[in-house]
Amino acid sequence: MPPSPHSPTTSPRGKSPPISPATPPPRSGSSACTATAAGAWPTTRRATSSTTRSCPADSSSPRTRHGPPPWPASAPTALWASGSGETTGCPSLTASAVAVTGSRNPTEQAIAHTHAFAAAVAEAGHTVTATLAYGVDAAAHRAAAQAGRATLAVLPRGLDRAHPHDQVQLMSSIRSHGGAVVSLYRPGTEASGATLKAGAALFAALARAVILIEAPDHSVPAMHTAQVASDLNRPLLAPPATEDVRANGSARLLAEQRAVLCPDPARALALL
């Protein structure tokens, strides 16, 4: 059963979140993964909460499936995950994660592309992975939910609150419909420019491919995700770009042949 309608697709203007200091490793007994050695991908530790568990370091983790993430050897030491039931173990979601991301203020064509690509990805058995951002990312979660599939959300802050804050209903729906939410940061950590970039790197590292629906050049999270995907040799796919300024970033990546043109979802699925 798909989630109920959520917040609008476009982002309201608001103040930038405060910058927070680096987050220390989780304490013993907390609901996160811990590393067995410096630089190792997190190992499993079951949490005391029934709705928050850790992501195990097995064949489905980013490090073993796709190579090391783009962080220093000493990080990350932990991933935080929250969901409902056994799905929060993460392997069932991350094993075939496909990122669908783009503009926070998309064109109508971009929203149509988002629904088509996200639904096709979900129906093909892949996990649609996106942030909770307005626009393309939120639409991707809804499209997958309408197809009856669970999704994975990546947050640039602690999992005690949504980001953006008023996307709490979307975050709740993802968790209650078999999906999960993951983060590099312990609860209480606020979003900042640094966490947004680190979250974008995690986003790309978790996915086997990134579908960039539409993005302007100044869209830091979406374009940084695309850059990290390229650095990690993940397939970077994109539908045809419009001439709208909101698509100039994805249009540039297509023109430079850094993104593969996918006229329709079938082409994208063939490349996954």
Outline the structure in words.
The two termini are 27 Å apart. The radius of gyration is 17 Å and the shape is globular. It has a nine-stranded mixed beta sheet, with helices on both faces. It is an alpha/beta fold and 272 residues long. The chain is 32% helix and 12% strand. The model is unreliable at 1-54 and 56-75 (pLDDT under 50). The protein contains nine helices and nine strands. The chain has a single domain (52-271), classed as Rossmann fold (3-Layer(aba) Sandwich). Strand 5 (152-155), helix 5 (168-176) and strand 6 form a beta-alpha-beta unit. It has helices at residues 62-66, 91-94, 108-123, 136-146, 168-176, 193-206, 220-231, 248-255, 265-271, and strands at 52-53, 80-83, 97-101, 127-130, 152-155, 180-183, 209-212, 236-238, 260-261.
Summarize the structure.
This protein has nine helices and nine strands.
What is the strand and helix layout of this fold?
Elements: E1 52-53, H1 62-66, E2 80-83, H2 91-94, E3 97-101, H3 108-123, E4 127-130, H4 136-146, E5 152-155, H5 168-176, E6 180-183, H6 193-206, E7 209-212, H7 220-231, E8 236-238, H8 248-255, E9 260-261, H9 265-271
Parallel strand pairs: 3-4, 3-7, 4-5, 5-6, 7-8, 8-9
Antiparallel strand pairs: 1-2, 2-6
Q: Report how far the terminal alpha carbons are from each other.
A: 27 Å
**Which stretches are low in confidence, meaning pLDDT under 50 for 5 or more residues running?**
1-54, 56-75
The name CATH uses for the topology is Rossmann fold
- Helical residues, percent: 25-40%
Major beta sheet summary: 9 strands, mixed
Per CATH, the class reads Alpha Beta
Question: Order of strands side by side in the largest beta sheet?
Answer: 1-2-6-5-4-3-7-8-9
* Estimated share of beta-strand residues: 5-15%
Number of helices: 9
The count of β-strands is: 9
Alpha-carbon Rg, integer:
17 Å
